[in-house]
Amino acid sequence: MQELETDVLVIGFGGAGASAAIEAHDAGAQVIILEKMAEPGGNTRLSNCSWFSPPPGTEAQAIEHIDALCLGRTDRDVIEAYVKSAGTTKAWIEGLGGTPKVTHFLSVRYPQVTHPSWPGFPGSAAMVNQTVMSPRDSEPNGERLFMLLHDNVEKRGIKTILGAPAKELLTNERGDVVGAVAEKDGETITIKARRAVVLTSGGFEFNDEMKARYLPLNPFYGIGNPGNTGDGITMAEKIGADLWHMGVVVGSFGIRAEGFYAPFSINYPSPRFIYVNKHGKRFTNETGWETHFAWQSLVAYDPKKPGYPTLPVYGICDKEGLMKGTLHAGTAGGGRHYKWSADNSAEVAKGWIIEGKTVAELAQKIKMDPAVLEKTLSKYGEYCEKGVDPDFHRSKETLQSLNTGPFYAVEMWPRMVNTMGGPRRDGEARVLNKDGAPIGRLYSAGELGSLWGHLYCGGGNVGEALAVGRIAGRNAAAQAPLNS
Ligand SMILES: Cc1cc2nc3c(=O)[nH]c(=O)nc-3n(C[C@H](O)[C@H](O)[C@H](O)COP(=O)(O)OP(=O)(O)OC[C@H]3O[C@@H](n4cnc5c(N)ncnc54)[C@H](O)[C@@H]3O)c2cc1C
């Protein structure tokens, strides 16, 4: 058994962990970071690298906006602290050697990303996101951001232990957290933390049991870091932490392909498509969903039958719709190394996109009643001619008939970006117990117990990792040390 000691122990080396470690170190504390995986970076490294940092003078609007999105499920001090800290993230990143740049999400694909964030909610214009250019500009997306943080951790000589999952939090007789037990290569490592422990071990995207227990859909496939299995949530709950936002999840749906653990997102480049459920019927306004919440269209149930009537979902388009451009424009997550063809022909050849010369032939190939799918398309064609969709109220300009064969289907399943739930924290990033009191010397940040309590604004998670990670690191370092 190995025994180590430090001032601040950070559990999880993604964006929140790196930010907490850098800040704690710069406040004068000795820091150790424990990382479960052989490679650090977590979801942060796989992300699209868009992070919230409000322009000066817009903080009050941003607070109002996030408060409205959270629907009363997040304490106001937590939102205020996040926004205040996020307002300084841009300068902090510059101080680390990065060059931030305002970024806008691609908003012309379906399901859409709304920009600015949720325009119908107050304060939307303040939700400005940045991305980072860095000395490693050739790296894609979150890789750029994470390697900037990583290089800064390394430069400071912060000790990192990779391939070493934390297993348990250690507490003293007062219930304060005084360290953790981890494992590496079959050996137990006990690390004593003189000042505090910061939990930044991410969500539970890859824990099937927790997903089944907490999420509104099942199955729900992760696309990020397979190491995010809710370990920190379990460890914190075991010592009395209150949990919040466990059912909040961000995602849409995508195609599962052999050899890839993460489903690919399908983002139609034009409105020339519909979704049908497994029975061949439309079930939603296909062009009306914000991409992070498109999964909500799948939660419907049929009181007369078990299971989800929507799953699997099929995206249906015609030849002209297919030729509008690549159906997968993703550059992040588990499928990022695969280059989807610009005209989708490679994926048709692989059978990922299923082709039928006629609607009936397509229906047979996807094991659907041809008469039902034909009726769905002909009824939809009538709506397109009239410019009105009485069933699901698609806007007139998106009503484009699917009338040029061959026809194409993509089978899709719920695909999540990340979970939000975990231990509840306060504005000082202290983990709270079930009575609402802080658990001594335990801090948290990032998507583990994220502040997003209902809806979510793109950029809000990496933004939170960077902003709240620094609050946690600073406050952890400020604790008076326990005697050795
Ligand atoms: C494909 C994709 C794209 C995204 N794009 C964006 C975006 O553009 N903007 C945005 O705001 N959000 C985005 N998100 C979400 C965002 O990336 C994450 O929510 C955020 O980066 C989480 O940061 P974190 O530090 O809390 O967790 P992570 O970065 O996931 O880090 C957690 C770390 O803890 C480690 N860990 C887990 N268990 C243990 C244990 N027992 N012991 C030690 N270590 C452990 C994990 O291996 C991991 O390295 C995206 C997510 C994905 C998957």
Condensed summary:
This protein has 484 residues and is of the alpha+beta class.
State the main characteristics.
single chain; 484 residues; alpha+beta; FAD/NAD(P)-binding domain; Flavocytochrome C3, Chain A, domain 1; seven-stranded mixed sheet; 27% helix; 22% strand; binds flavin-adenine dinucleotide
Cα radius of gyration in angstroms: 24 Å
Query: What name goes with the CATH superfamily of the largest domain?
Result: FAD/NAD(P)-binding domain
Tally of contiguous helical segments: 13
Oligomer state equals: single chain
Name of the CATH first level of the largest domain? Alpha Beta
The total of beta strands comes to 20
What is the terminal separation in angstroms? Answer: 19 Å
Kindly estimate the percentage of residues that lie in beta strands according to DSSP.
Answer: 15-25%
Structure description:
With 484 residues, this protein is of the alpha+beta class. The protein folds into 2 domains: 2-247 and 420-477, FAD/NAD(P)-binding domain, CATH 3.50.50.60; 250-416, Succinate dehydrogenase/fumarate reductase flavoprotein, catalytic domain (Flavocytochrome C3, Chain A, domain 1), CATH 3.90.700. The chain has helices at residues 15-26, 42-46, 59-70, 76-86, 89-95, 141-155, 208-214, 231-238, 319-322, 345-350, 359-365, 370-386, 460-477, and strands at residues 2-11, 31-34, 51-52, 99-103, 129-133, 159-161, 166-171, 177-184, 187-199, 221-222, 243-244, 249-255, 264-265, 274-276, 313-318, 354-356, 407-419, 422-423, 430-432, 438-444. The site of flavin-adenine dinucleotide has 47 residues, from helix 1, helix 2, strand 17 and helix 13.
